[in-house]
Design a protein that fits this description.
single chain, alpha+beta, nine-stranded mixed sheet, seven-stranded antiparallel sheet
Length: about 250
């Protein structure tokens, strides 16, 4: 019987257990990067000993790499809680992130990207939070209940993505620049949902997809009358004097 709380060191098959049981998995970055892989065209992050939240090492993004950024793909989508610790050295120019996403590329990001406050991002929209940047370790948490995902910084909820419902992958580091960031003690804690809860979540997803499809059909129907009016293609008319070369070009077309 596996432990309810598992720590990742050098066991390559351990991530599959995250999707199979309600036990928590913690990646402590003491021995290796814990299943994270470098994003395409980015630089790998490194294990370093100059900062650590727990143990002796953390996962570092920054010089000499230009864009230290890695991601962790889960064996199966997860509903539950994700927590990661981020160390801020208060360097004013910084673009570091903890990001969660689903199979449809719906995202919710924590971003250290301004000199004064932390930000949250959904899609391409950045929002300043009320949480001020301070020196030291910060707890970044994502809570997925099957209908939405809430981001909290040091226990304060700062943003909700109503379209992100299941966790498929996690990204750490900076895909943008060579700023500095340290990450440690990443915990993935799936919820043990009942069959009834899973059925209700699936039913709600189907209903929302059906409503979105009907909205698209309605929008296309509303535009149909415009196709015979303002959006109707203009008839090709005489463009003026022609030349033998233009006439030959037209003949060949």
């Amino acid at each position: 019987m596996p432990s309810r709380c598992l720590r990742r060191s050098a066991l390559p098959g351990l991530l599959a257990l995250v999707a199979a049981c309600a036990g928590a998995l913690t990646l402590d970055f003491e021995q290796n990067v814990g299943g994270f892989v470098t994003l395409a065209e980015k630089q790998p992050m490194r294990l370093v000993a100059d900062q650590a939240h727990g143990g002796k090492q953390s996962l570092y993004s920054g010089p000499p790499g230009a864009t230290g950024c890695m991601s962790l793909k889960l064996a199966k989508p997860v509903i539950g809680r994700v927590e990661c610790w981020f160390y801020d050295d208060l360097a004013p120019a910084k673009r570091q992130t903890v990001s969660v996403s689903d199979v449809g590329d719906e995202y919710l990001l924590f971003v250290a990207g301004t000199p004064t406050v932390y930000q949250a991002r959904i899609g391409m929209t950045y929002t300043d939070t009320r949480v001020k940047r301070t020196l030291g370790w910060h707890r970044i948490s994502f809570l997925l209940d099957g209908r939405r995902t809430a981001l909290s910084i040091d226990g304060e909820q700062v943003m909700v993505n109503e379209r992100l419902r299941r966790l498929d992958s996690i990204m750490l580091g900076s895909p943008w620049d060579a700023s500095t960031g340290w990450y440690d003690d990443l915990t993935i804690e799936p919820r043990d949902l009942s069959d009834a809860e899973l059925a209700a979540i699936d039913a709600a997803d189907r209903a929302e997809r059906a409503a979105a499809r009907q909205a698209r059909i309605g929008a296309l129907t509303a535009d149909r009358s415009r196709l015979s009016g303002e959006l109707k293609a203009a008839t090709y008319g005489h463009l003026g004097a022609t030349t033998p070369l233009a006439e030959e070009y037209h003949r060949r077309l």
